[in-house]
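Practice problem. Given the sequence and the SMILES for zinc ion, write out the predicted structure.
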Amino acid sequence: MEEQHRLSPTAQTQPNEVPAQLWVGNDEQLDEKVREYLRSQLCPNKGCGSCACCRQIVDDRHHAVRWFCPEKYYTNDTIADLFETIAFTLEPSEQFFFILKRADFLTASCANMLLKPIEEPPPGYRFILLAQRLEPVLPTIRSRCSITIHTHTAQAASSHPLFEACATTRPADPSAFLKTLDSSKINERETIELLDALLRHWNNHYHTACASNKQTHLRILTRVITIIEEAIAQPPMPGSCKIFWKNLFLQIKACHPATETAHHKR
Ligand SMILES: [Zn+2]
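Answer key:
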């Protein structure tokens, strides 16, 4: 206990540490990082990994940690007991962490209710919001959090074989793509990550092309970006990832100038 008393205030007074943090990355990666962080904050031995406190954190049984993970969107009910909890004043040495998974699924009404506690929580209460992507997180929430992007996600995405296949309009063998698709066993969540990475990739191309004012190129890039944006707006339903990727692949390849000319000749 002695040790914890010494540790907690130090952690709280780090100058750039605001009470609310927003971490962006893939679910599993964030889960692991949060537990690691909680251990570093709560374990009397700086996150030893073997004491009772560390084990409780790993098993989601720690008394000073409350996780929220809505099935779909957050409702006011989802976060009701957060407000009941913060009504209790903590001891000066105590910390309590709220972990809000899927912060990109906070409705405007829930977000509004959270603004005040996130910005100025009662002493000792801390918030960690997790999201797979940054853009869908409401700006009012984003602006009140210190944001950490776990770039591992972006790096992993750009070396994914499906990313590589869709990162160019250059013609490629569809049957080879289908084989890659089969062996990738991609799921809905990974699809969203890859789409984000693809959008960033194509946007970068677009900005480069703008700088050199290549009109034909810009037209193609605009089409590809529209295709990816539409795919992001209508992500695959469970079980439909394969057909989703097959369509995306064909659409992107159809933007290649040679393919385009062939279509016109018909
Ligand atoms: Zn420990």
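Check your answer against the key. Confidence is low (pLDDT under 50) at residues 1-16.
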